[in-house]
Amino acid sequence: MAKVTYSGVRESKPGRVNDLGSTGKEVEENFRKGCLKRADRSFAQGLQCQQINSLAALMSLEDAVFISHSPQGCVGCAIMAIDMYRVGQIHRGVRNVKNPRLIVTNLDQKSVVFGGEPKLREAVEKAIDRYSPKLIFVFTSCASGIIGDDVDAICDSLQKDYPDTLLVPIHCEGFKSKICASGFDAAFISINKYILKHQKIEKEEGLINLFAPTTVSYADQKEMERMLKLLGAKVNYIPFYSSLEKIRKIPAAQASTSICKVFADEFMKTLEEDYDIPYSHTVMPIGIRNTDKWYRGIAKVIGKEKEVEEIIAREHERIEPLVKKIRDRLQGKRVFICGGTGRSFAAAALIDDFGMELIGLETPTYDDDAQIDIEYLNGIHKDFVIDIANMQPFEQVNLVNRLKPDAFIGVPEWAAKLGVPTTHVLDGKRPTMGYDGLLFLGNKIADQLENPGFNKKLAAHSKLPYKDSWYEQNPFKYITEGGN
Amino acid sequence: MAKLLDKQRYKCALAAMQTVQAIDRALPILHSGPGCAQKLSDTNGSSGYFSPNIFPCTSINEKDVVFGGVKKLNSTIDNALKVIDADLYVVLTGCIPEIVGDDSGEVVSRFEDADKPVIYAPTAGFKGNNYKGHEQVVDAIVEQYLKKSDKKQKGLINIWADVPYQDLFWLGNLRALEKLVAELGLTPNTIFGYNRGIENINKIPEAEFNLLVSPWVGLSNVKKMERKFGTPYLHYPTLPIGATETSKFLREVGKFAGVDEAKVEAVIKEHEDYYYYLIGRYADLFLENRVINKQFTVVADAQYSLGITKFLVNDLGLIPAKQFVVDDTPKNYRDQITEEFKKLNFGIEAEVSFETDGYKIHSEIKEHDYHGYPLVLGGYYEKEVTESLKGNFLNISWPVQDKVVFDRSYVGYEGGIRLIEDIYTVAVSRFN
């Protein structure tokens, strides 16, 4: 059978669903029977688009300039990237903290009619003239895609004029996918095509590629590196705060693993096919079960199964008494979770460490990978509602209002206005992962839930913007058949 | 329109969703790609009744690009009216529907008889920035919602200033302008922020005149209202910061509104007395040469670049280095604004550059001899360049990262004092 090249659009995978309301038990069964259908929403609130993820995945690479081939709004959120990049540099001890070098081609009415090629050429020329970067990433946008600019051809022709700077076009038009993680795939597809170029290089004994998305803190990076070093591995942490040189080293690795379920998962498959690098794709290492699972996954790939069991036993002995203290503070609380694919499932497993019970889960995508987690979660949590949604706060508040959880984990704004105590497992500045991260995170959650005062006051003095009638209706009312 | 943007200073016209958001109980409905609301949001006081993740959005996909997104827009508006409790629904269109040619105006017109008003503003990102988008939203309200009124309310003044959320201090500034106008015995009417909303929008056609406090943003709006409602306008181009400009502002507004001159002077005297009492107590700090140097640069939109330059020259006795206006001011307004920069006390003139390319701005700042460490007031991007010159930096324009602002203001006598506090707090906490 001919090999089908993956387009980078996550919807292209059969069986993947983005719009669904169900329960843990029902969704597991329906997926197994092949009964989940693609759907859409006839009413929805804004999403995150894949261009954000493509930009975020690479924004911390040194020696790079980022060109958004778009109108002026597509990098409107640049300040978040700037902040994240500056925080990351400061945590890593960088003295002269820099801003990311971000240029917008500023497609205008003329470009829409005549094409944006002159603007892109000018941007590339100026970027090289001003910053002499080793890399230029060109990110496409909805507008550049629809007007049909041939960004690959333009970059190809410019590449001949500028041999010292590598030009890497990335196809991340927002309208192509509802799953923002597609943007990660788009970035990796281009890294393989334009930087690694299917060239095999000499292997480096013990080297592991550790793929991590932007939201992973330096504290978490250090914990993951500590754990891998205990297995005798050397770590190539990419692409966050790395460089062209480190990216070029990817094919030298003995194995790959990722910190996030939807980051580099497709890329690691490609690395196995193109460069014979085996990989482990499991879960996000948050909580005891997930940390163990993640750790065993990569240990197995590098043949350290015996060693990892010894370390895990030692770590458990160290942290279990401390986890028990946290459990005493959190036991029995009923929890609603909303998050991205990696963190939502990780949080659902984490709360079991603390004796909490899952009653609702909102996560962006359902597929065979989610099925594995749901099978596990159905084993430990009796009965929970599942909303396959990218945010959609109107569905969330309807559910939270019905289920009345004791705690909410995720984007806290709306549950807080219903008076529910809220907390987070996403923290780009502090520890959340591995054995040490678990303790920090657990104590933070317990502290936060013990004083719900702020949320109660907020709820008493604010109203959510929905009509009262909405709370009486089926939360999944606007999920309709026939999405693409 | 500006060419490429290196260190971008604004967002696209669709970011006028923030202008809508600033109107109490007004809801933007986005007909756009999936990520637009998130990309165009800030975290500066944005989690109120409506926040960007709440905004209904058609999240146009590949199928809609090919077949048009009109049906989806129709169902989104229809259901937004059922699910979300708002007083005014404003449909904003992004790049995609305007490129593929969706007739969004026609879809919106189907909701003419809805319980609540639904209006529409074309805000494609490729057509302009959010300063223009802001004007489009105000235009949409004037054209599609408001009607001419035969009734005029004596002393009622509509006040218009710069762009909510793009201007971090928008709420405080508007409240400060209202207060100043009220002290002259007039009744201010604004539509943005707490407890204003649709009721104040309804009053717009009844006003005696429109007061526009901005170098250029909103000028086309007040002109339109003059044509449609017969409402005259006073265009005061300088944001009044500190005593010199605020007293001038009060005199001009008083004269235009026919307020008794003695009354105006009494208001001014009371404020100036207290203002100079405060200044006098800290005069030693300002008179010391070693605390800050005399030369400064502002990198901001026309509003702050002009307002702060006038304040620092006329009230604090500083000397302007080159000033930068970064809001892509339309060409037809530039000469007039350039002239304003020349109207400084003691014959001082400030050179101003209309520049959207941050790289060029930073190069010029680096090359200029400030006769010591510079004082730079600008966007967060200027932090890096000012630090490299060991200067004093204050983040006053977008993008903003190192500040939390609820309802503080730089407007008026009190606003001038707040700005001095902020500048000198930076200066005295450093060791240069």
Query: What is the molecular shape of chain B?
Result: globular
Helix count of chain B, per DSSP?
18
Beta-strand percent range of chain A? 5-15%
Q: CATH class of the domain at 280-428 in chain B, please?
A: Alpha Beta
**How is the biggest beta sheet of chain A arranged?**
6 strands, mixed
Stretches with pLDDT under 50, minimum 5 residues of chain B: none
Main β-sheet, spatial strand arrangement of chain A: 1-13-12-11-14-15
User: How many individual β-strands of chain B?
Assistant: 14
Spell out the CATH superfamily of the domain at 280-428 in chain B: Nitrogenase molybdenum iron protein domain
Supply Rg of chain A.
23 Å
The averaged pLDDT of chain B comes out at 96
Task: Please report the first level of CATH classification, the CATH class of the largest domain in chain A.
Answer: Alpha Beta
Keywords:
heterodimer, A: alpha/beta, Rossmann fold, six-stranded mixed sheet, four-stranded parallel sheet, 46% helix, 14% strand, B: 432 residues, alpha/beta
